[in-house]
């Protein structure tokens, strides 16, 4: 949030205040004067704003559900003989991937369409986050099968596969974090950073094997890495859940304060 320093020029302040967008700044009588909660201080109880807040809440719940399912699947990998083999077969796994991608996009779209009550910075970041994440999803589904064979003319296929996995993971986790970053409290932001760090770290550790700089890990280490990667979606889900709880609580307080 922006902080305004007094400059001693009262006339310029009064004229410029007429052009201030109320969604860009916390209201003086905001719901919370805690610095980490400032983005939520612009919540209004106007009917349109409440509908947008509800969309944000539903979007967060969709993201939470997908991240929890992803965490469970990956954390259970250590208990399976081959964690890379789909539990219900490849066709079912492909269907689940399409369904989970669709649900995640729906959740992100609801957050984007409900962004206005939370200020311009969140609006910009959420739109960028969803756009970048969607681009990565489309790349996976439609371009990746052609990407590796095309670049294999320059580099060997396994090197292209490893580098692509690392870069794609870095972009994807950053986009996911941007969806709600400006709304998060200090704790929520720490959870997002930790989720990004673990996701990228595991991707580097795992995909760097394809660079053939060292021998492939043993099966136990492979399983441990696969399971460890489940911590990333678990942390994302936790950050979203904490934010959902805060929005629910503070929007309810706002409704009580502004009710006739």
Polypeptide structure, described:
The protein has helices at 10-16, 47-75, 90-113, 120-151, 157-178, 186-207, 219-228, 231-258. The protein is mostly helical. The radius of gyration is 22 Å and the shape is globular. 30% of the residues are buried.
Distinctive features:
single chain; 260 residues; mainly alpha; 8 helices; 67% helix; 0% strand; disordered N terminus
What is the straight-line distance between the termini?
30 Å
**Which descriptor suits the 3D outline?**
globular
Low-confidence stretches: 1-8, 10-37
Number of helices: 8
Give the proportion of residues in helices: 55-70%
Domains, number: 1
Task: Write a brief caption for the model.
The chain is mostly helical and 260 residues long. It has helices at residues 10-16, 47-75, 90-113, 120-151, 157-178, 186-207, 219-228, 231-258.
């Amino acid at each position: 949030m922006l902080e305004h320093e007094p400059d001693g020029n009262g006339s310029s302040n009064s004229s410029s205040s007429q052009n201030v967008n109320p969604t860009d700044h916390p209201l003086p009588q905001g719901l919370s004067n805690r610095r980490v909660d400032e983005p939520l201080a612009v919540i209004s109880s106007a009917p349109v704003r409440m509908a947008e807040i509800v969309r944000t809440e539903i979007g967060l719940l969709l993201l939470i559900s997908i991240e929890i399912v992803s965490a469970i699947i990956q954390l259970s990998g250590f208990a399976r003989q081959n964690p890379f083999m789909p539990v219900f077969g490849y066709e079912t796994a492909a269907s689940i991937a399409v369904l989970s991608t669709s649900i995640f996009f729906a959740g992100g779209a609801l957050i984007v369409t409900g962004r206005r009550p939370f200020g311009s910075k969140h609006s910009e970041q959420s739109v960028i986050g969803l756009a970048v994440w969607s681009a990565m999803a489309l790349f996976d589904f439609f371009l990746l099968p052609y990407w590796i064979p095309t670049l294999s003319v320059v580099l060997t296929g396994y090197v292209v596969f490893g580098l692509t996995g690392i870069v794609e993971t870095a972009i994807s986790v950053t986009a996911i974090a941007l969806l709600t970053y400006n709304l998060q409290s200090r704790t929520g932001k720490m959870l997002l950073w930790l989720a990004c760090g673990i996701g990228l770290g595991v991707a580097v550790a795992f995909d760097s094997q394809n660079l053939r700089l060292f021998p492939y890990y043993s099966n136990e280490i492979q399983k441990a890495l696969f399971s460890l990667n489940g911590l990333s979606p678990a942390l994302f889900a936790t950050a979203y859940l904490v934010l959902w709880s805060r929005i629910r609580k503070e929007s309810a307080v706002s409704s009580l304060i502004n009710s006739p």
